[in-house]
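Quick illustration, no need to memorize.
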Amino acid sequence: MSLAADILDAARARGVMIATAESCTGGLIAGALTEVPGSSDAVDRGFVTYSNAAKQQMLGVRADTLEDHGAVSEQVAAEMATGALRLSDAGIAVSVTGIAGPGGSEHKPEGRVCFGIAQPFGTRTETVEFGAIGRRQVRAATVDHALQMLLDALRS
């Protein structure tokens, strides 16, 4: 069984739907989940919010948060996840925002990705430095990590 199939089974067991809020992955997490036949009973929706405007308009990320911390931050990941939870019928939401590359900045290197998991009882975040392994690899590693976070959260 695949990781995505395990997540769907865990969501069904908990009686919750899943929402995704994605920036650097552009919908790949939702794509991995919906690749599994029958996923519509466990996946509610996915938000692809690549621009800062989309993060604000579709998920309610605050302009102050973007200004103070930047789009690639745990604060924005948290607001993306809580926004996806609030604006969907899901009981759990995962978010990702990062720098897939190529390139980065002095303060935010290529391969840095911030993750958020929101549930009605709280939101947690984390940052992973995948390194300058290339855009495709950063995005694939981000999908794998987000899926594992979802599974862990559903099973806890």
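Helices lie at 3-14, 28-34, 52-59, 63-69, 74-86, 135-155.
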